[in-house]
Write a structure and sequence with these properties.
The protein is an alpha+beta fold and about 80 residues long. It has helices at about 5-10, 35-40; strands at about 15-20, 25-30, 50, 55, 70-75.
């Protein structure tokens, strides 16, 4: 008995986007908003500031902002401290 196509490929492949992250070529899953993409790239979104394609994007816009092919992200991590 031949296996069905579903059983032959148990995991669907996720489309990837080519982006620039802090000047370096990277990929991230397609279809994510900025907040989701940051998490997928290993950042804690609440601890970063993001410049998207040359513009600092306010945090409240991240859930509505899709990440698209060839987008350029500059991500700066906020570091706490004091003396």
């Amino acid at each position: 008995m031949d296996p069905s196509p579903e059983s032959a490929t148990p995991h669907a492949t996720v489309a990837q986007l080519a982006i620039q992250l802090n000047g370096e070529p990277r990929t991230c899953p397609a279809g994510l908003n900025l907040e989701q993409a940051l998490a997928a790239l290993g950042f804690q979104p609440r601890l970063v500031v993001v410049e998207l394609n040359g513009t600092i994007l306010p945090r409240q816009h991240w859930p509505q902002q899709p990440v698209l092919e060839s987008d350029s992200l500059e991500v700066v991590t906020i570091v706490g401290g004091g003396s």
